[in-house]
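U., I forgot to send this yesterday:
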Amino acid sequence: MITRKGKQHIFSIIKKMLSQNSRVLEEGILSLEDGIDEFAASFDKKDASFVYEVFRIVLDGMFERPENGEYASESGDAILSVYLKNRVCACGGNKLAKLCHRIIAASAFYCRKRLSQQEFELLLTSFLSDRLRTDYYAMPRSQ
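Result:
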């Protein structure tokens, strides 16, 4: 059972990730480069370093050209996906911490895919239990 404080923590992470995705949709992926330090600092201590690390990996890895000069996006995506999953596992922590890190890692991975806000939100909430997802979508929406 996740406490009220834990639920608020998860929902705030989702909101921050949605904000970043919105920024990427408006300004492009390189917009993340400019504010990565401030963005990571907006999280609590245990999540901030993870946020910085995974977004930095995504940004740094995206623009490296393989030796043959061609981009292999599918194999690159698979490698990045496995790496991010391994980072979530390596961080350890309780179930809440792992859930938060899964959401952060998925956000870092999928923000480069230019998903619409609705698709991105559905993706992030897919990590939640049915009850948490219901609570999330029942929250009042600020416009």
